[in-house]
Amino acid sequence: MTRLILIRHGETDYNLENRYCGFSNPPLNNKGIWQSKRLAVRLKNIKIDKVYSSDLKRACETAKIIFENNPIGKITDFREMNFGLFEGLKYGQIIKKYPKLYKDWIDNPKVKIPNGEGLKDMDRRVQEGLSSILSQHKGKTLAVVAHGGPIRIILCDALKFGLKMFWQIEQENGALNIIDYSKELTPIVVKMNDISQ
Question: Could you identify which of 105, 135, 177, 189 might form a hypothetical disulfide with 6, taking C-beta atoms 3.0 to 4.6 angstroms apart as the criterion?
Answer without folding.
Answer: 177
